[in-house]
Amino acid sequence: MKEAETNSLVDAEFTRVKIVVRWSLPEHEFPTEDDQQAVEKLAERMDRILGQSMLAEVKGFQSGCGYIDILIHGKETDEDTDEIYSLIVDSFRGAGCPVGSCIIHRYREPETEAVSDIIYDR
């Protein structure tokens, strides 16, 4: 099978947001260009790690007043959510994320969210 075909099959499997890496912004400000560049750099680092594991991938960003989210998609099951977290947590911790930043784990069974690695001070 060709590499492009293999990649499209893997992409089709990654249909659900499993991890959200939230880059918080002070005083509910909108993201600046510097914020966006820092988040993109972190997302690229995480995506390289995830690509090697074949468990998940960064599929985009969502931003608003006070945050930029990195959306990490994986397979429909919850089985590997914690493993995906373990692959990206060191990159998050080493990125110098602003106060209030965190990692949000999304589970389907039962439908819950768990927040971890909240940055309380710098």
Largest β-sheet summary:
5 strands, antiparallel
Give the strand tally: 5
- What count of helical segments does DSSP give? 3
How much of the sequence lies in strands comes to 25-35%
Number of domains: 1
Order of strands, main sheet, comes to: 2-3-1-4-5
Distance between the termini: 48 Å
Q: List low-pLDDT spans.
A: 1-10
Secondary-structure element pattern, one letter each? HEHEEHEE
Q: Helical amount among residues, as a percent range?
A: 25-40%
Structural class: alpha+beta
- What's the rounded overall pLDDT mean? 90
CATH architecture: 2-Layer Sandwich
Radius of gyration: 15 Å
Account of the 3D structure:
- The protein has 122 residues and is α+β, with helices and mostly antiparallel strands.
- The chain has a single domain, classed as Alpha-Beta Plaits, CATH 3.30.70.
- Helix content is 37%, strand content 30%.
- It has three helices and five strands.
- The chain has a five-stranded antiparallel beta sheet with strand order 2-3-1-4-5, covered by helices on one side.
- Strand 4 and strand 5 form a beta hairpin.
- The protein is globular and about 35 Å long.
